[in-house]
Amino acid sequence: MWRRWGFIRQAKLMLLRFLRLRGQPDEIAKGFALGIFIGMTPTLGFQMILAVLFAMLLRENKLAAAIGVWISNPITAAFIYAAEYETGRFILDMPHLHFPGEMTLETIQHFGYELMIPMCLGSLIYGILLAAVSYALVLRMVPTLKTCRVPRWPRPFKRKLNRHDG
Fold it and tell me: In which region does residue 93 sit, left (phi positive, over 0), alpha (psi from -120 to 50) or beta (all else)?
């Protein structure tokens, strides 16, 4: 069923879900910022679980945290991780990665170190920066958005059939 909906309808439904979040604007903004921070980490596949778990531990809005994680989705993840790696590599003054011709356990371990250390540093930098910006924006946006009324999506006209229409 969702495949028939357009991108605009999906965006509108996500906005409605965000508008209907319960809680104080501060709780929602903190939950969303937490989700953004975790979404920027290289924990692909576990981000949603981590966001909800940390939101429960910190007593922030779990749904806002889960929504924030979607900053890294299948479309944006490659760009985000590449930027994080390049930023971390630049700060640590590390050379570019070169793939080895033969994959052994030792080369995989060395490859993992050369990849993950810069990526983790870059993810911390981008995560803190974007979490702070998103917290400030969402904190100011939530009271305004709560007063907005989103009109219903127009339903297609269905003609009623009479007994004589066949």
Answer: left
